[in-house]
Design brief:
This protein is an alpha+beta fold. It has helices at about 5-10, 55-65, 90-105, 110-115; strands at about 15-20, 25-30, 35-40, 50-55, 70, 80-85. The model has no long low-confidence stretch (mean pLDDT about 90).
Amino acid sequence: MHNYPWIENYCLSLLGTEMDYKVEWSATRFMVCGKMFAMQGGDKSGKLILSLKLKPENGLILREKYPEVIPGYYLNKTHWNSIYLEGTVPDDVLKMMISESYDLIYNALTKKQKESLKPNRVGGN
């Protein structure tokens, strides 16, 4: 178990997020329009990690501040960061990291992809 039982619900609350399980990686992926913004799995010893894409400068700052934040495990070490989920990164910081990762992927989507994510509006709002 880990210290952040809310991760799945938080990721799924972001517009257009889909979740799948990649058997080959033993990891749960969170994606928007087929592009991954978060991956939850384990390191080689089985410790749970969450990997997120961040702006390189933000990743460096967080790696210096929190020992649980390391360069992306199995991923590009400049753009991706992994967080050990048995650590003490505050919830609000981890939520900010998840949101930044989502925003980086969302902002790279085409206009057509973004339009496909608009929630259907029912009624006269």
